[in-house]
Please model this.
Amino acid sequence: MGHKFSLVLSREITDEESAVLGDGFEGAVFSTDALPTDAEVTVTRIDFDDEVSPSLAEAIESALESVKTVPDLTVPGLSVPAVPQAPAEEQADEEA
Model:
């Protein structure tokens, strides 16, 4: 199971910028969305399912670093879906 999360960028990116980011974002899905704080502003949303990074934190950090390579682009939104917990007895069995 990969590390799933989404980044909302500060603006809509160009095809050229998409190509630059796509190189660092294997398996990422780019789409158009609205800025969470202003529905009239069109932005790019990138959905990730990172199968390579050892942790969610490292996957997010890597994605944020890649975005910094594009001038005048920031990340005003990050969303991470809830991950269901295993029942307590299953967790205890795994720890034993």
The chain has a mean pLDDT of 87.
